[in-house]
Design goal:
Layout: H1 28-37, H2 49-54, E1 71-75, E2 83-89, H3 104-120, E3 130-134, E4 146-150, H4 157-162, E5 170-172, H5 173-181
Antiparallel strand pairs: 1-2, 2-4, 3-4, 3-5
Helix pairs in contact: 3-5
Length: about 180
């Protein structure tokens, strides 16, 4: 199979072919199959950092093993606890306010991935875990992401405020699921 070289507008590279002169490397059937297996363009926001991370386009972010094909998990860059992970859907979903009743399963799957990541990192005291979402306008990234924090009793003073359960700016998973079901 021929290697494909990607060029991002750098015309100074002589090895870089532009789209108008490059020969197709796949048949139309193969192209359709690849497109069907990848995320649709409307499910992806090129400007969204978490969309790029979900597609593996941010090499500085290590994706943690995740058994759910619709989600990715990685460490928070500003951890508030010894275990602080983010669970993110691969499809772009803006925030909690964009969720509907049919998204309950997505949220439940995000929780399951969060628990699995904690277990893999030898943390099993689930009474000392906080999982939740920031509410707009307090979202730093406008892409739905579940904060998985453990142990909660080791949160610092500021982190206790930022991740305060069911406050105006941060809601727990249980609260969100109850809200979605009603």
């Amino acid at each position: 199979m021929a290697e494909e070289q990607r060029c991002y507008g750098t015309e100074s590279d002589p090895n870089c072919k532009t789209a108008t002169t490059a020969e197709p490397t796949m048949s139309p059937t193969q192209t359709s199959e690849v497109a069907a297996g990848s995320l649709e363009l409307e499910d992806y926001d090129l400007k969204c950092l978490f969309c790029r991370i979900a597609r593996g386009q941010e090499p500085s972010t290590e994706l943690l093993p995740c058994e759910n094909e619709d989600l990715v998990c990685f460490k928070d860059i500003k951890p508030a606890a010894p275990h602080h992970y983010l669970v993110v859907p691969k499809k772009h979903v803006g925030n909690c306010n964009d969720l509907k009743k049919d998204h309950v399963e997505l949220v439940e799957n995000m929780v399951a991935v969060g628990k699995t990541i904690l277990e893999r990192n030898n943390f099993t005291d689930f009474k000392n875990v906080r999982m939740g979402f920031h509410m707009p306008p307090f979202c730093s990234i406008s892409h739905l992401h579940l904060h998985v924090l453990a142990p909660v009793n080791q949160l610092g003073f500021i982190s206790k405020l930022i991740y305060r359960a069911n406050s105006y700016w941060f809601i727990t998973v249980d609260y969100l699921i109850e809200k979605l079901r009603t």
